[in-house]
Amino acid sequence: SEACTGSALKKLAKQELCLRKGQANNTLQQIQITLSNKSYIFHKYVQHYKSQSKKTRTWGCISQQDDIVQKHARIYAQCRKAMVRLGVSSHTLEKYQILEKSDCRVNTGIIDDPSKRGNRNKVLPWIWGLGDGLNKGKHLTDFVRLHWLREKAMRDHWQEDLTFIINEMDWVCNYFNYHGDSWRRRAEHHSPTPGHEAYTACQCHMWYYFARTAHTQFEEAKLMHLHPILADFQVNRSTKDFQDLLNSDSEDQQSQSSSGAEDDV
Predict the structure, then answer these.
(1) Domain residue ranges in the chain
(2) Residue 153 near residue 235 (C-beta atoms within 8 A)
(3) Mean pLDDT over all residues of the chain?
């Protein structure tokens, strides 16, 4: 009987863990939707209203959105604690991280002035990397699409910088070798005096020494600081997920147009 009881409890714990994962996903999705609504309200209304009464009323709406976020954040915290007590794996805990206050903030400066200093290196919190990004409403789809494009541009910029740095290492070595070869050719094609010959040999030795030293240090730096494979680097959303967003948006527009045509009939 004890074995049966233990087996039944394990089965119930497994079912509860599955339900808790679903609850965590739903809660995080609600946080995403609320944050996107808050960002939309602030960008669309607060920054453009000149009337103080309208701004005050709009700030009240933003305060309501903050209350909703805090409510779902508390639910998620309790849900995560329950998952830990149920013995969830470390891999799952890496996915469902501890929700900090900084994770529940949105930056409208990215929309207002993307070129503003500091905006380029800002990334979305981890909660935006969860879920498939589909069936979340137009505002959230546009929000994810905007940040996906911004972070893809950031990834491309990093890849470009990495390519330049690696090439600059080769250019520096080639520059030193070029000057060493130039001084060597001067010594070969002319009949210098002993003083000129000594000076030419000194210059050749100096430039070739620079080239060897730079090459050695650059190779050591490449081994010590192995760069990630940027082609496989995902910026919260993969290319397939972004294409799914575009396809879902076009399907929604087609369904709306077809429903409108049926209504006209």
Answers:
(1) 2-112, 153-254
(2) no
(3) 75
